[in-house]
Amino acid sequence: MYMTDKIALLRLYNRPPKYKASLAKLTLDILPIALVLHLCIAVWMYGASSFASHPVTYGNTTYTMSIVSTDIDGNSTMPMVDQVR
User: Fold this and answer.
1) Residue-range domain boundaries for the chain
2) pTM for this model (two decimals)
3) What is the pLDDT of residues 3-29, one digit of tens each?
4) CA-CA distance, 78 to 65, in Å (whole number)?
């Protein structure tokens, strides 16, 4: 197996193309816009109570999405999936 990989690497495979600096600049210009768009969609998804508001049954257990859940100490946490009993 070593010899086939060595032959393929040295004889068959080509060098990857060299990218220009303009591609890196374009990426850096788009990143802030992508970040803001990502944050807006995340806030919208976490803020919309209609998403995943229906119960989901898996086997004999039913799960539901709660808007605000609490941990063991009673502190509020992020939205979590709760088991319906």
Assistant:
1) 19-48, 50-85
2) 0.45
3) 888 888 888 888 888 999 999 999 999
4) 11
